[in-house]
């Protein structure tokens, strides 16, 4: 058998390299850095972040008075605040949201859309205790067999069922995500003479023209819903953003853009603390996008130490940037528990 002869390593091989090796290493590092920089610049060339006046918001007005006077509709039964609950995890946020509607004297029915078989009896009992009317709806799966959709958004198309509430005699709705909290009355939204209205979205890097689907004001129509279902599979939109991207496309030519006070996305405070300070006293609805004062993953109804741990974590986020706003939610939750103690106690024995 042929033997292979290997040259021995230099005694100082691990600490000393030839000069040409050192030079080659630096050249490779420089070329690698230039390649990464070129890719970064190329991405921004095709995906430029165009600054808007809001990205450099300046306080130019002594105060912000953004809303029209509150108008109370004569027939409250034809108006509804709508939210969704797809599993027990968000039961506590939905209950807290329901209580905040009462505290703000919002004059409309409260309809909770849920998928039969997904919620425990105790969860349904809790949401009823604070005034929600559970309304079972069919699950609407993501188009294209869910390809490209974020796993947390696979249920979100089901919210489109709110357009069918005309079958319950409801002609105007204000939809609120479960991670919102009502600070002040917004009855004027039920009087809007438009088909669809929402607040522009905000990301941590820029303000957006497209809307955020966490707060929506809409006119119900089963005919509109059926057309949505026909178009959902053929529409071209970013699948990762789920129903929000679809609604941006579907109502793109007619969306009325509402002031930020109707969807006080916490990202605004991170993106523009000056704007947040200017609008804080006018906020109608605050949206706990990041951080949330409750777990966003897991199972079961969140309460007790599990909830308190999430609240403490949220208060510490971003160097305690949102401590005050998390405190708003915490206080609303405590008020909800205290003011509905007997009704909530009756739910304890249910599974």
Automatic annotation (TrEMBL):
Name this protein carries in UniProt: Glycosyltransferase family 8 protein
Source organism per UniProt: Auriscalpium vulgare
């Amino acid at each position: 058998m042929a033997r292979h002869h290997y040259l021995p390593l230099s005694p100082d091989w691990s600490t000393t390299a030839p000069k040409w090796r050192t030079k080659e290493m630096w050249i490779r590092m420089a070329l690698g850095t230039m390649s990464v920089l070129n890719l970064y610049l190329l991405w921004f060339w095709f995906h430029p972040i165009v600054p808007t006046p809001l990205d450099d918001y300046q306080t130019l007005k002594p105060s912000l008075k953004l809303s029209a006077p509150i108008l109370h509709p004569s027939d409250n039964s034809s108006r509804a605040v709508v939210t969704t609950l797809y599993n027990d995890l968000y039961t506590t946020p939905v209950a807290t949201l329901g209580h905040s509607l009462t505290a703000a004297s919002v004059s409309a029915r409260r309809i909770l859309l849920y998928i039969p078989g997904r919620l425990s009896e105790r969860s349904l009992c809790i949401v009823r205790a604070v005034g929600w009317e559970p309304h079972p709806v069919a699950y609407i799966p993501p188009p294209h067999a869910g390809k490209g959709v974020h796993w947390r958004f696979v249920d979100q198309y089901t919210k489109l069922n709110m357009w069918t509430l005309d079958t319950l005699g409801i002609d105007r709705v204000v939809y609120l995500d479960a991670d919102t909290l009502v600070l002040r009355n917004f009855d004027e939204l039920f009087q809007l003479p438009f088909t669809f209205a929402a607040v522009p979205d905000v990301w941590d890097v820029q303000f957006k023209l497209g809307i955020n689907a966490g707060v929506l004001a809409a006119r119900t129509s089963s005919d509109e819903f059926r057309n949505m279902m026909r178009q959902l599979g053929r529409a071209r939109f970013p699948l990762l953003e789920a129903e929000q991207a679809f609604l941006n496309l579907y109502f793109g030519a007619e969306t009325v853009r509402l002031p930020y006070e109707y969807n006080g996305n916490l990202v605004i405070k991170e993106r523009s603390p000056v704007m947040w300070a200017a609008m804080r006293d006018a906020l109608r609805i605050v949206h706990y996008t990041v951080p949330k004062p409750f777990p966003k993953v897991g199972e079961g109804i969140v309460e007790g130490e599990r909830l308190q741990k999430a609240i403490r974590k949220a208060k510490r986020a971003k160097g305690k940037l949102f401590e005050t706003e998390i405190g708003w939610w915490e206080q609303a939750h405590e008020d909800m528990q205290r003011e509905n103690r007997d009704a909530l106690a009756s739910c304890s024995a249910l599974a």
